[in-house]
Write a structure and sequence with these properties.
This protein is mainly beta and about 450 residues long. It has no helices and 29 strands.
């Protein structure tokens, strides 16, 4: 119990087998607490195979541990206010070198289940050490795309020793590589799966279901404010193209379960979804990594004030470059400077902290300077059961107005909206109504 901290399946197509069979190499990589006990380090396990379409049980296949090693940091990070060397995970690899399977139109789902996670996980309900894991992946068949059974899964690097400091901005890569030329990958947060529970009573082997239970799998019990799509709260997101997780870490130190789903496409067709799960440890440390507040446009003047949304006691100098390519003096060494642009345009603003020092870092943002955006409207009407006519009067000095979103303030319905430039609305009840118009222009202004 209390030892699983993440993992993922990968597989390689090895070629045709006898008759219409196909052969694969299938590997399960499991993250555990450092130096698990012999009881936690299960030497011999079974992978369970299900039909990829109807989830019918097909067979199990025995596999043993082929590699075990610790994932550690060997030196202190000078730019983080905490002592961070040490062991982070014990990595356990189960490698099924070759298995020959009959070709199936729906392909195969491969699963393994084991209890238990560690105690005190911040984004799960207690007791989190009664919550198990389901590791699973899909090998597609030819009903998805011709030759789907020859697919190779994406590969994740095992380099997960990133330091994440509470209330600090961070970036963490979950990027995978795909050995199949031409495949594309898309990333998203998704539910981590439960599977297996504490043994006891009439179920002494509940911690290691063998064979694994069939899909569909239940999510782990997320706590208030967290979910599979927001595993570290609303302040942390994942880039769907790069797999980079970024944002401001939650305030409470401790471990958080993160699961990333990687959707694999061939010629634009979704052929499989793969999963990597990990427990991220948020520490009571401080990072100097700066982040320019994302003021990406100014629509009401040429002056903008900038600041660093990730202040740190480790920062002892600032250097701002406001991105005017024709100037060398468009800079400041203030922590929160203001700058007035002489002309409209798009500028790349860069902040460097601790410039020319050991602990130096930078952050950039793009700002669009297009002042002169004046939303407005007028209306005609005054009686219920007769239409009110609304006329947009918005002006913009740059670009053109390109969207209108009206809310007519009619408390009797939720359908009192329109995206027309000059709409009308009929009220069924008398009274004071608050009408709101939100407009945008082609330069990115919203008001």
């Amino acid at each position: 119990a209390d030892h699983i901290k993440g993992g993922f399946f990968t597989y390689r197509y090895l070629g045709p087998g006898s008759g219409t069979n196909v052969r694969y190499n299938i590997t399960l990589t499991v993250y555990m607490i450092c130096n698990p006990s012999s009881g936690q380090l299960t030497q011999n396990i079974n992978f369970t195979f299900f039909d990829g379409g109807n989830f019918q049980f097909i067979q199990t296949a025995p596999v043993t541990i082929t590699n075990t090693y610790n994932l550690s940091k060997v030196r202190d990070e000078p730019c983080i206010s905490d002592d961070v060397p040490g062991c982070y995970y014990t990595i356990v690899v189960y490698d099924l070198a070759s298995i020959e399977l009959p070709s199936r139109p729906n392909g195969y789902i491969v699963s393994y289940q084991r209890c238990c996670r560690i105690a005190g996980i911040q984004n799960l309900t207690a007791p989190s050490n009664a919550v198990g894991n389901t590791f699973t992946t899909l090998i597609p068949g030819n009903n998805v795309i011709a030759g789907g059974e020859t697919n190779n899964s994406p590969v994740f690097p095992v380099n997960d020793t990133a330091i994440v400091c509470r209330n600090n901005y961070f970036q963490l890569s979950f990027q995978a590589s795909d050995p199949d030329a031409g495949d594309s990958l898309s990333y998203s947060f998704c539910d981590a799966f439960n599977g297996g529970g504490q043994p006891g009573g009439n179920c002494p082997t509940c911690n290691t279901p063998d064979p694994a239970t069939a899909p569909l799998y239940s999510p782990v019990p997320y706590g208030a404010g967290f979910s599979g799509s927001q595993p570290m709260g609303t302040g942390v997101t994942i880039n769907s193209s790069t797999g980079i997780i970024s944002g401001t870490a939650p305030p409470n130190p401790g471990e958080y379960v993160i699961c990333v789903c990687v959707r694999e496409y061939k010629s634009g067709v979704l052929v499989a979804t793969h999963r990597k799960e990990l427990h991220i440890n948020v520490k009571s440390c401080e990072s100097l990594a700066p982040r320019v507040n994302p003021f990406d446009k100014t629509c009401d003047g040429f002056t903008r004030t900038f600041d660093n949304s990730n202040p740190s006691a480790l920062i002892n100098s600032y250097h701002w470059d406001f991105g005017v390519l024709s100037l060398l003096n468009d800079t400041s060494n203030l922590a929160a400077p203001s700058y007035t642009y002489a002309d409209t345009g798009v500028y790349l603003v860069k902040l460097v902290v601790n410039r020319n020092q050991e602990c130096s870092d930078s952050s950039t943002t793009v700002i669009r300077v297009y002042p002169g955006f004046f939303p407005g409207f007028r209306m005609a009407g005054g009686c219920i059961t007769s239409p009110f006519l609304f006329t947009d009067t918005t002006r913009t000095n740059y670009g053109f107005v390109d969207s209108w979103s009206w809310n007519f303030g009619d408390e009797t319905t939720l359908a009192d909206t329109s995206h027309l430039q000059h709409p009308q609305w009929t009220y069924s009840t008398p009274g004071v109504k608050t009408v709101t118009l939100t407009v945008t222009n082609s330069k990115g202004c919203v008001s």
